[in-house]
Amino acid sequence: MKHIRNFCIIAHIDHGKSTLADRLLQITGTISDRDMKDQVLDNMELEQERGITIKSHAIQMKYEQDGANYIFNLIDTPGHVDFSYEVSRSIAACEGALLIIDSTQGIQAQTISNLYLAIEHDLEIIPVMNKMDLPNAMPEIVEDQIIELIGCKREDIIRASGKTGEGVPEILRRIVSDIPPPTGDPEAPLQALIFDSVFNPFRGVIAYFKIVNGTLRKGDKVRFFATDREYQADEIGVLRMGMDPRPELTSGSVGYIISNIKTAKEVKVGDTITHVKNGCGKRIEGFQEVKPMVFAGVYPIDSDDYEDLRAAMEKLQLNDASLTYEPESSLALGFGFRCGFLGLLHMEIIQERLDREFDMNVITTVPNVEYIVHTKKGETYTIYNPSGMPGALTIDVIEEPYIRAQIITQVEYIGSIMTLCLDKRGMMVKQTYISTDRAELTFDLPLAEIVFDFYDKLKSISKGYASFDYHIIGHKPAKLVKLDILLNGEPVDALSSLIHFNNAERFGRRMCEKLKELIPRQQFDVAIQAAIGAKIIARETVKAVRKDVTAKCYGGDITRKRKLLEKQKAGKKRMKQVGNVEVPQKAFLAVLKLD
Q: Strand, helix or coil at 532?
């Protein structure tokens, strides 16, 4: 055990951690030069395309130093704020962390929040300053920031470059000397923490785990604590570039278990594996359940695909434990699912994966957050969908979730970022200067306001320099109203939304204008209305496609023309009663992108 080192890499998005992981794999000979490609651990097509890590990956490396052979278990983690859940799981399975900071950008918000997670778990931190080969690197300034953040010595900071390999041998030496070996008793009852799972169509669910105490052998009878199910360990092993079977694994090891599990729900990330006989008495602490932040309805375009969508969702949930879903139906869209996502990027990626991996064409409704509704009778409801709101007259108070947001930015953008946050009903908590030209702003904001386009606007205002991180701080009462969109007097439930009273009229008007552009003209007038309860606050009309029925009347008595027009009017009225208005899919998508 004293030759095992378990560590993860934590950093802000795009600070070069996947490239650095490539160099570590290359220098330790885990992957041959022939098989080497950029971001080798990001094996999902989407990850390669966007250049981001979506799912954390575990891999074992062998390293020799001073005649001793060491085993390194690396868990690469995502950097985007939406995937901080993946990071928390990886941190729980490690004893040390490489803190990677881009020498051209300095410390950013996600770096700080991931660092606090690591410190909470008592991880040994090795600071690494990456991208030293770039001409615009500012090593002295960034070193000052790191020293101020974690209180290390200047000589402790490793200057490295994932691209050229500079500083990587030093990182490997420091992993051996600084990160403690895992503590645990190989003779104690088995306790293993599941930190990830993947679905293989031929072998079922494969669970990745770290053994805290005890020893696991092939063929052992094991029990999963949370589900209380029993299985046989058909195959266990370690994770190299592929899966490498082993007869036994002892405490401190990171590996995988295949035990013929067919359904996704039987494996819970954060669960504890133990033996059926002489098992451990309690589960491993320190794991948090994931809480979705953004909710949206996902519906198949063709209602016959509902069962296929259900199967696709189950398989996706296996590879992404943070996705939650439950069935729901809508008058406009038929049967579908109400899904919970960690954020907008997460939602976008799930949509892309449904399309690419399962060939599913879906419509996603307007994203919402969860609201707590208190009625005048003293009842309390949790609402994820505006269509589930009780009547406006019965509501006493609505509470919405609030977040504490930390924004790190260059000094020259402070004014415009403050304006953006105040427009989004934010309240300033504090402002601190990290260095002479960088400041950290802390705001309390309603989560519903940042769900749509906050992140995009923040990036464009600050020319990409501001970084953003948040955590939920609880619910607060707010003056919210349900905004309905009516087409010819019929509400379209997929377009209804909960919105703050002050913004409702502006938003309703913009929605009506947008739908007027997108709804095709019918043979009758289509009235598009935005309403709060019984009060109409905005209206647009899509004019009818008209045929000139009086074209053949040349001269003669006016009553001939009037008779034809009355006949046409009666026909239009009859058509309006039986005709229904189809809302094209691009109208749903356009509402999401309303500026």
A: strand
Instruction: Please name which of 96, 299, 278, 93 lies closest in space to residue 178, comparing C-alpha atoms.
Output: 96
Q: CA 393 → CA 19, 374, 542, distances in Å? A: 58, 12, 32
Q: Pick the closest to residue 410 from 13, 14, 108, 81 (CA basis).
A: 108
Question: Where among 130, 145, 178 does a domain terminate?
Answer: 178
Rounded CA-CA distance 88/92 in Å is 6
Domain of 210 in residue numbering reads as: 191-275
Cα gap 258→232, rounded to integer Å: 9
Do residue 474 and residue 486 come from a single domain? no
Residue 373 C-beta-side C-alpha neighbours within 13 Å: 23
Tell how far CA 533 is from the center of its chain: 33
Report the alpha-carbon distance of residue 254 to residue 58 in Å, rounded.
8
Q: Which amino acid is at 449?
A: E
Question: What b/e sequence results for 176-192 when a residue is b if at least 16 CB atoms lie within 10 Å of its CB, and e otherwise?
Answer: beebebbebeeeeebbb
Residue position matching structure tokens 């809302």 = 583
Are both 546 and 583 inside the same structural domain? Answer: yes
Residue 436: Cβ within 10 Å count: 8
Which of 213, 206, 165 has its CA nearest to residue 192?
213
- pLDDT tens profile 83-119: 666 677 777 778 888 888 888 877 776 677 778 778 8
> Rounded CA gap, 352 and 593, in Å?
17
Claim to verify: residue 306 and residue 426 sit in the same structural domain? no
Pair type for strands 324-330 and 362-364 = unpaired
Q: Report CA-CA distances (Å) from 364 to 17, 312, 343, 373, 530.
A: 32, 15, 14, 24, 21
281 occurs within a structural domain: no
Distance CA 372, CA 361 (A): 32
Q: How many domains does the chain have?
A: 5
Instruction: With respect to residue 442, please indicate whether it lies within any of the assigned structural domains.
Output: yes
DSSP 359-413: ---EEE---B--EEEEETTS-EEEESSGGGPPPTTTEEEEEEEEEEEEEEEEGGG
CA dihedral over 374, 375, 378, 380, signed as positive or negative? negative
Which of the 8 DSSP states describes residue 477? E
Amino acid at 511: M
Q: Which of 126-130, 388-392, 430-434 comes out lowest in average pLDDT? A: 388-392
Is residue 106 a contact partner of residue 438, using CB atoms and an 8 Å limit? yes
Q: Check: CB of residue 263 under 8 Å from CB of residue 13.
A: no
According to DSSP, the β-strands at 535-542 and 334-341 are unpaired
Distance CA 554, CA 536 (A): 43
Reported residue count of the chain is 595
Query: pLDDT tens-digit profile of 279-316?
Result: 777 777 755 566 677 788 888 887 788 888 888 888 78
Q: Give the tens place of pLDDT for each residue, 359-385.
A: 888 888 777 778 888 888 888 888 877
Spatial CA neighbour of 170 closest among 104, 131, 124, 126 = 126
What lies within 8 Å, CB to CB, of 79 at 6+ separation is: 11, 12, 13, 14, 15, 17, 52, 53, 110, 114
